[in-house]
Amino acid sequence: MSKKCVIGKCALCGRENIQLMQSHIIPKLVYSRIKTYQNSRFRNYFDFNQLYQDGEKKPMLCHECEQFFSKYEVEFTNKFLDKYLDLNNQSLPPQYDGIQNYIISVAWRIVYDDLFIYNSFTDTYMRTTYELLELRFYVSTL
Ligand SMILES: [Zn+2]
């Protein structure tokens, strides 16, 4: 994964000719917790022999939009994920108001990445379905 500066269009706010951050598709908080488990590894889904030091990142969002999603990630970590891990996976902590913001932001990144970066489902009826889903997630993040 390259750390070079990428100028492009932000996938969320739509601003063009703006510096894009290396955005985690699955938030970094998930990877940082997985790393605490002994012998955990991150692998390329399409090439299982390729190991990553960190989760998959893409030049997707501008700094401002990264910060916008970051607040949902921090809230999710503090109000749900860390409590869940402290309970040793025995039960789920209570949901908090706003948990849907985190879930939708992750779902949108996954669908956006699949549709517009991997260009999946080209020339299939599934493409339209996923495009509508992506639009619905996108609108929900705003
Ligand atoms: Zn943006």
SSE blueprint:
Layout: E1 6-8, E2 18-24, H1 28-34, E3 42-43, E4 51-52, E5 57-62, H2 63-86, H3 99-117, H4 125-141
Antiparallel strand pairs: 1-2, 2-5, 3-4
Helix pairs in contact: 2-3, 3-4
The structure holds zinc ion.
Describe it for me?
The chain has 142 residues and is α+β, with helices and mostly antiparallel strands. It has one domain (6-141). It is 47% helix and 14% strand. The strands form two sheets. It has a three-stranded antiparallel beta sheet. It has a two-stranded antiparallel sheet with strand order 3-4. Strand 3 and strand 4 (51-52) form a beta hairpin. Helix 2 crosses helix 3 (99-117).
Alpha carbon gap, first and last residue: 29 Å
Q: How much beta, percentage-wise?
A: 5-15%
Question: Could you describe the largest sheet, including whether it forms a barrel?
Answer: 3 strands, antiparallel
**Secondary structural class:** alpha+beta
> Helical amount among residues, as a percent range?
40-55%
The largest sheet has its strands arranged as 1-2-5
Query: Mean of the pLDDT scores?
Result: 86
Tell me the count of domains.
Answer: 1
- The rough form would be described as globular
Write the H/E string, N to C: EEHEEEHHH
What binds here, in terms of ligands, is: zinc ion
Q: What does the radius of gyration come to?
A: 16 Å
Regions with little confidence, pLDDT below 50 for 5+ residues: none
Count every helix, treating DSSP H or I runs of 4 or more residues as helices: 4
How many strands appear in the DSSP assignment?
5
